[in-house]
Specification:
- The chain contains eight helices and nine strands.
- Strand 1 (3-8), helix 1 (13-23) and strand 2 (28-35) form a beta-alpha-beta unit.
- It is an alpha/beta fold.
- The chain is 35% helix and 19% strand.
- The protein has helices spanning 13-23, 83-90, 95-104, 127-139, 166-170, 175-181, 189-202, 211-219, and strands spanning 3-8, 28-35, 46-50, 69-72, 109-113, 146-150, 154-156, 186-188, 208-209.
- The strands form two sheets. Strands 3-2-1-4-5-6-9 form a seven-stranded parallel sheet, with helices on both faces. The protein has a two-stranded parallel ribbon with strand order 7-8.
Length: 220
């Protein structure tokens, strides 16, 4: 039958790339995308819920039952934001859904897209890394069957998708160079999506998944 996945962030570049891999994967039978606005994707496997308040999901609680995985791909840049604001958009808009999904689907797997350089100690000098570290740490305390923190570096976009940021289109020529000379710094969105699906299907020994782990998982 395949696994059923909840995904957030599908109207952004990362989430759209992960969603694309889920919809085209033979071992994924269905995807529920929770978005604030209508997405660009239509597919027989895809169900979409438009939901504005990511701090409260009680109104759609019954629609979140019966899932095998939750892929949290929603995120914003820290540029121009103070710590309180970034915490609101990162931690406060991630934990409520994850907490509810864990209570409804205790045998589910959670994956969270964090970032290379995230600070697990929560005490470093880099603001975004501390906030991401706090988010990771608290997600791993939730009663999921497994919770995995993905820390990609540069993500090469999937050709043909609509939400690719202009910066990534301009930087595409750098990808082969990064792959060759800095292999632990870059992967493709395709590889990230495949790695997340693999972890949802079989688990993983490492709870924190770095770039080299993403590349290895994507090949399995």
């Amino acid at each position: 039958m395949g696994i059923k996945i909840i995904i957030t962030g599908a109207t952004g570049m990362v989430g759209e790339g992960v969603l694309h891999e889920c919809l085209n994967h033979p071992e994924v039978s269905g995807v529920l995308a929770i978005n604030r606005r209508i997405g660009n994707t239509s597919h027989p496997k895809l169900t979409e819920i438009i939901h504005q308040d990511f701090t409260n999901f009680e109104g759609i609680k019954d629609q979140l039952k019966g899932y095998d995985a939750c892929f949290c791909c929603m995120g914003v840049t820290s540029v121009g934001k103070d710590e309180a604001t970034f915490h609101q958009f990162t931690y406060n808009l991630t934990l409520p859904l994850a907490t509810l999904v864990a209570s409804l689907n205790p045998n589910a797997v959670l994956t969270y897209v964090s970032g290379k350089g995230t600070d697990s100690s929560e005490k470093g000098s880099t603001m975004w890394a501390r906030v991401k570290g706090k988010t990771e740490n608290d997600l791993m305390q939730l009663p999921f069957k497994g919770a995995y923190m993905f820390r990609p570096g540069y993500l090469h976009p999937t050709p043909g998708l609509k939400n690719t940021l202009k910066l990534y289109r301009w930087m595409g020529w750098l990808y082969p160079i990064l792959k060759t000379f800095f292999p632990g710094s870059a992967s493709s969105l395709k590889e990230l999506g495949l790695a997340m699906i693999k972890v949802a299907l079989t688990g993983n020994e490492k709870k924190v998944v770095e770039v080299k782990d993403i590349l290895a998982l994507a090949k399995k």
